[in-house]
Amino acid sequence: MSRRKLLVLLPVVPALALLASVWLPFVNAERLWFGMPSLYVWVGGWVLMLTPALAAVEWGLFRHGERVAAGAAAGEAQ
What keywords are annotated for this sequence in UniProt (predicted)? Predict the structure, then answer.
């Protein structure tokens, strides 16, 4: 699998963690983590992890597009 395809799959992990949060017994329970309900902490943590994951995908795809465009422009110039 290419690095680009793996990069696109990166945001899937936080998305699945967010979707599965209501079915995970250690998250969806009546207990406190850091003084807040465990579900709030779990969702907040994964939302904070989702943002860099999406940024990495955007950065990786944008950089790849720049390289392809630069290679095409160099090929036309020759």
Answer: Membrane, Transmembrane, Transmembrane helix
- DSSP letter assigned to residue 72: H
Q: CA geometry: angle at 44 spanning 4 and 16, to 5°? A: 45
**Structural domain containing residue 27:** 3-77
Give the confidence band of 77 by pLDDT, cuts at 50, 70, 90.
low
Summarised one tens digit per residue, pLDDT across range 49-66 is 999 999 988 888 777 656
Give the span between the Cα atoms of 13 and 76, in whole angstroms: 40
Quote the pTM value.
0.68
Q: How far is CA 40 from the centre of its chain?
A: 19
Give bridge partners of residue 36 from the DSSP assignment: 33
28: DSSP letter:
S
Total domain count, the chain: 1
The structure tokens 């790849």 sit at: 64
